[in-house]
């Protein structure tokens, strides 16, 4: 009997030793970006199958680094997706699947740095044959799956929308879970968090229709939130233009330019008189802090039929009121179809790439004060044959300098790789040389480098992955 | 016819009486005869009938049922008798047999004859290693207690009544009857008076304690004895029930206490060094995936 008692004490002590640690993951979110460059982060947690935890934090009141502890709740792993926003625009994302380790508190660093070089091949392999549907616009968002990563693609065409699972093997079957797209031609779909729940919602821009707002229901499906504005927009961009930490919208079309301010819950009100000079023939729009004052400025393309001078409007007041700045861009008319903004030369300010119909790609290097110099001749490869409906500027090979994907009407997209100093060099095309109207980038196979989803034309969806 | 029946019964009775031992005969100790012969030999010695003493004592030492004690006493008187008869070689043989039984044997000769002592010392000095000629002899007096109680201290006293300067130490040797060896307990004392507090082993049942007291000189030679290993004093010891151990003297209590203390110490160390899931700095601090958000 006494021996049993002593043995019980020993077992109790051993049990204490074995079970003394909690099972948890502590996320430590940090960034090497200068203070003020980030204005918010989103933390999204998912354990697969259940609704996600998503919460947006305004960084001025919670400066980085910050921590958040994740308890398993009976789940073996969690997927964490942490976004960083600058002026309402996603500027960094960390996505990872973290398995829990029993009786261990794992400390996981979540860097939201300006760039962490992680070189990859930059070569792409087609995952499978293209799906083949007629898709006019698409977007890509992380899937609600904590076990293997993967994305959900939202493909839209006139009057139709569908979701696809996108993972390493390729693009999966069509699945329901999205409202019907407007009846007109779908010009663009923006993937933004409208209601601050850290899930990427959608803004659909279609010809002859107001902006359609779709909300991510939490499981990757979308429900219609409503529509805003008149049916005169052909392009839109999203960013925090009034500095309140929420994602606002700027929509343009013809002579119209609208600013829609978000109250943080996905409800918008139009701010009238936001532009001191109305556009003459707006065709494209982008939002970026060009002058480095911490406020999102507007870059507006024009020339639906006749070439017109693109414009830059500076957000001087910070309240979403924009001032036309004629000297920001060279006064050279163009039929602008798309913009891409990024730091081409790695000097810390945002440069501009512009696509046009029946015209060459232009590269503008920012002197740092929103004055953009045309360096196309020295920085870009030979000119592109064919119209360019959209652009993708993303660091595909992990060298902290962006590559440019140039979709072309009726031809395979071109891939221009960064060669340093802002220079882009032709690197051929993708593995499956199918025509595409647009390209999206994300790490769909969870291997740490970006993969590319091509869409549009008769291609449907074509996934090109980096091995 | 009647007379013939009586004769047959008498014959059977005689036959039974001769061939079957009676209960009294079965209970008779075979050593009694040896003791009787030894007593006869001692008496003959006292009566200075040394030849008759030798005869009786020789029968004792040749008797296979004689104990070591009886043999030792027989050899002592045999040796003394032979010496007195002038048969020194036979006397030496007898004393050597005696010393083979007990090398520290002290003569019990009541006459204290110097010649006898000197001869015995010579034999012992040549026969027992480490024994030289002694500087003399001593004599102990001891009042044996009449009884003792198991587990209770018993005062044993011994007084050196002769040859006190020779005595360097006095030792009480005691054992429970049935055991082969004695335990030694040094007695404290001075000026020839020694005493020891001896506690008989605690037992539930009564038993007999056997002991003897031995005095030695500075060279470790036995110079006096009260009783001897072969003929110890028998002390009846009253059994006493063994009281249960108090709880704090039980081994398993302290084993459990040790286990608890060790467990608490280990637990404390582990708890101190273990890692608990901290609350994060971002609201709500901790997120459990098992909940619905």
What attributes does this structure have?
heterodimer, A: 4-stranded antiparallel beta sheet, 4-stranded antiparallel beta sheet, 35 strands, 45% strand, globular, B: 293 residues, alpha+beta, 9-stranded mixed beta sheet, 10 strands, disordered N terminus
Q: How many H/I helices of chain B?
A: 8
What level of helicity do the residues of chain B show? 40-55%
**Strand order of the main beta sheet of chain A, please?**
3-2-5-6
Which range best describes the helical content of chain A: under 10%, 10-25%, 25-40%, 40-55%, 55-70% or over 70%?
Answer: under 10%
Number of helices of chain A: 2
Tell me which oligomeric state these chains represent: heterodimer
Our measurement of the CA-to-CA distance between the termini of chain B, rounded to an integer number of angstroms, reads 129 Å
Describe this structure in words.
The complex is a heterodimer of chains A (467) and B (293). Chain A is mainly beta. Chain A is built from 2 helices and 35 strands. Chain A has helices at residues 2-18, 376-379; strands spanning 24-30, 40-46, 53-58, 66-71, 77-86, 89-99, 105-111, 125-126, 137-142, 151-157, 160-167, 170-175, 186-192, 201-206, 211-216, 222-228, 235-239, 248-253, 256-262, 268-271, 282-288, 297-302, 311-314, 323-324, 336-342, 351-356, 362-366, 372-374, 392-394, 403-408, 411-418, 424-429, 438-442, 451-456, 460-465. In chain A, a hairpin with an 8-residue loop joins strand 17 and strand 18. Chain B has 293 residues and is of the alpha+beta class. Chain B contains 8 helices and 10 strands. Chain B has helices spanning 2-19, 23-27, 31-46, 50-62, 68-84, 88-101, 114-127, 251-273; strands at residues 139-141, 148-149, 154-162, 169-176, 183-190, 193-198, 207-216, 222-226, 233-238, 286-288. In chain B, strands 1, 2, 3, 4, 5, 6, 7, 8 and 9 form a 9-stranded mixed β-sheet that branches. The longest helix of chain B has 23 residues, at 251-273. The interface between A and B is large, with 43 and 31 residues.
């Amino acid at each position: 009997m006494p021996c049993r008692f002593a043995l019980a004490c020993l077992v109790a002590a051993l049990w204490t030793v074995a079970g003394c640690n909690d099972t948890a993951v502590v996320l430590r979110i940090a960034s090497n970006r200068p203070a003020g460059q980030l204005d918010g982060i989103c933390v999204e947690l998912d354990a697969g199958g259940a609704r996600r935890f998503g919460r947006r934090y305004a960084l001025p009141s919670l400066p980085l680094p910050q921590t958040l502890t994740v308890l398993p709740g009976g789940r073996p792993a969690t997927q964490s997706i942490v976004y960083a926003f600058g002026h309402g625009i996603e500027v960094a994302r960390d996505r990872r699947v973290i398995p829990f380790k029993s009786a261990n508190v794992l400390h996981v660093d979540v860097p939201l740095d300006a760039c962490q070089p992680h070189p990859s091949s930059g070569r792409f392999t087609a995952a499978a044959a293209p799906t083949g549907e007629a898709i006019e616009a698409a977007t890509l968002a992380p899937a609600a799956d904590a076990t293997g990563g993967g994305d959900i693609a939202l493909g839209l065409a006139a009057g139709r929308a569908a979701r696809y699972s996108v993972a390493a093997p390729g693009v999966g079957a069509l699945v329901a879970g999205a409202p019907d797209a407007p009846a007109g031609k779908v010009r663009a779909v923006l993937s933004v968090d409208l209601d601050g729940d850290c899930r990427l919602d959608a803004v659909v821009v279609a010809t002859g229709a107001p902006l359609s707002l779709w909300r991510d229901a939490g499981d990757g499906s979308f429900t219609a939130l409503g529509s805003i504005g008149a049916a005169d927009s052909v392009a839109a961009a999203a960013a925090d233009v009034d500095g309140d930490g929420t994602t606002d919208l700027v929509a343009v079309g013809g002579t119209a330019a609208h600013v829609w301010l978000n109250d943080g819950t996905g409800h918008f009100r139009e701010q009238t008189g936001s532009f001191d000079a109305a556009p003459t023939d707006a065709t494209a729009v982008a939002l970026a802090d060009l002058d480095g004052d911490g406020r999102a400025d507007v870059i507006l393309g024009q020339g639906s039929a006749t070439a017109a001078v693109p414009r830059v409007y500076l957000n001087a007041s910070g309240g979403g009121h924009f001032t036309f700045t004629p000297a920001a861009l060279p006064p050279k008319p163009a039929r602008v179809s798309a913009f891409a903004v990024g730091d081409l030369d790695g000097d810390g300010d945002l440069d501009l790439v512009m696509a046009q119909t029946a015209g060459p790609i232009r590269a503008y290097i920012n002197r740092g004060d929103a004055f953009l110099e045309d360096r196309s001749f020295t920085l870009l490869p030979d000119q592109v044959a064919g119209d360019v409906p959209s652009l993708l500027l993303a660091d595909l090979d992990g060298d902290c300098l962006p590559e440019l994907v140039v979709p072309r009407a009726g031809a395979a997209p071109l891939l221009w790789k960064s060669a340093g100093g802002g220079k882009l060099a032709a690197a051929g095309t993708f593995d499956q040389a199918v025509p595409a109207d647009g390209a999206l980038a994300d790490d769909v196979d969870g291997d740490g480098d970006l993969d590319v989803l091509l869409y549009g034309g008769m291609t449907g969806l074509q996934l090109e992955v980096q091995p | 016819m009647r007379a013939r029946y009586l004769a047959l019964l008498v014959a059977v009775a005689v036959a039974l009486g001769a061939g079957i031992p009676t209960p009294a005969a079965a209970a008779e100790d075979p050593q009694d005869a040896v003791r009787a012969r030894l007593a006869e030999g001692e008496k003959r010695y006292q009566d200075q009938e040394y030849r008759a003493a030798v005869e009786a004592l020789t029968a004792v030492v040749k008797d296979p049922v004689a104990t070591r004690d009886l043999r030792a006493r027989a050899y002592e008187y045999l040796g003394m008798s032979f010496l007195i008869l002038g048969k020194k070689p036979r006397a030496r043989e007898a004393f050597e047999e005696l010393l083979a039984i007990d090398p520290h044997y002290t003569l019990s000769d009541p006459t204290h004859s110097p010649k006898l002592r000197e001869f015995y010392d010579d034999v012992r000095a040549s026969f027992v290693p480490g024994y030289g000629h002694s500087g003399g002899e001593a004599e102990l007096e001891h009042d044996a207690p009449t009884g003792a109680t198991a587990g209770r201290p018993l005062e044993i006293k011994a007084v050196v009544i002769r040859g006190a300067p020779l005595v360097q130490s006095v030792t009480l040797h005691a054992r429970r009857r049935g055991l082969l060896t004695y335990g030694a307990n040094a007695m404290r004392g001075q000026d020839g008076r020694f005493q020891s507090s001896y506690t008989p082993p605690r037992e539930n049942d009564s038993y007999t304690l056997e002991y003897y007291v031995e005095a030695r000189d500075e060279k470790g030679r036995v110079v006096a004895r009260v009783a001897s290993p072969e003929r110890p004093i028998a002390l009846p010891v009253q059994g006493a029930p063994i009281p249960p151990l108090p709880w704090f003297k039980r081994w398993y209590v302290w084993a459990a206490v040790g286990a608890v203390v060790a467990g608490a110490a280990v637990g404390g160390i582990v708890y101190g060094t273990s890692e608990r899931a901290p609350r994060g700095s971002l609201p709500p601090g901790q997120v459990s995936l098992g909940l619905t958000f």
